Amino acid sequence: xxxxxxxKYKSRLHEFTRGHFxxxxxxxxxxxxYIFTSGRYEYHNKGMDLFIEALWRLxxxxxxxxxxxxxxxxxxxxxxxxxxxxxxxxxxFMLQELRETCDEITDRVGDRIFxxxxxxxxxxxxxxxxxxxxxxxKRMLYSRSEIMPPxxxxxxxxxxxxxxxxxxxxxxxxxxxxxxxxxxxYHPEFISSTNPLFGMDYDDFVRGCHLGIFPxxxxxxxxxxxxxxxxxxxxxxxxLSGFGAFIREHVPDHNDRGxxxxxxxxxxxxxxxxxxxxxxxxFCTLGRRERIELRNRCERTSDxxxxxxxxxxxxxxxxxxxxxxxxxLIS
Length: 331
Description:
- This protein has helices at 2-21, 48-64, 86-118, 131-144, 164-171, 202-208, 223-230, 242-250, 264-284, 288-300, 307-330, and strands spanning 32-38, 70-76, 81-84, 155-157, 182-187, 211-214, 235-238, 259-262.
- The protein is α/β, with parallel strands linked by helices.
- α2 crosses α9.
- The strands form two sheets. A six-stranded parallel sheet has the order 5-2-1-6-7-8, sandwiched between helices. Strands 3-4 form a two-stranded antiparallel ribbon.
């Protein structure tokens, strides 16, 4: 079931990609990997700085090896914005209008095929589109054509020049160029079903992605990688997070289960970036069957994160806190 759900919501992300990128250029969606990071806007604590730095290195490496693989990397957080960008909205609305136009033409072509078949005529595919259909399609294609690269941020920011994420993306020249294997979409608003760009809830967005990245510098626990695991999506966290420490202790073969843990405590920032980059390069070389098997193994680990198991740790933590706070008073 969760494999079918992944396929269903990945098609929604394909639709987003068509609207956001295909007006400027196109690439093979069958060779596209969707990765994301999300959480509160804590640029350093949430590891967003490591994520962007690893994306820059991944972009360089995929270009060096001339890989056909494309990566669309989402950064989802809640930042100070003015409004959704008008050009971004226009691109997506134009795609919707193109789909409606194609549906209308499809209906008309279907009627022509039926009429010709009913008359016993041999159907010539070249004659199925009439002049009006061709003019309508050309008009739509020209209206969608963009000269500038797709935008790296979906909203107009209140402090565009001071936003840490935008500054880092610009510093590393991650501008969604046509020949850049790594494309970036910074979405400074949490995703919900009312969102005009995605039209789905956050859980469904996660299901459509291939990999979640959460290399936190500080995280008492970390629900985002746990949510990925329950949804059958591989994830990356760090050993400085409670979740990462828990996984390393209780799941010896966590890498084989799609639960990757970056060693930030031992390696430091630069070493962690290199480790994350190597992990991303390796993930991008996986075939479709290998990714399916990894999602299967990841989902089978989710029982470890059921509340019937985790509640015991919360009870122990509460008892320890009470004991340490009040034991001296009682004695």
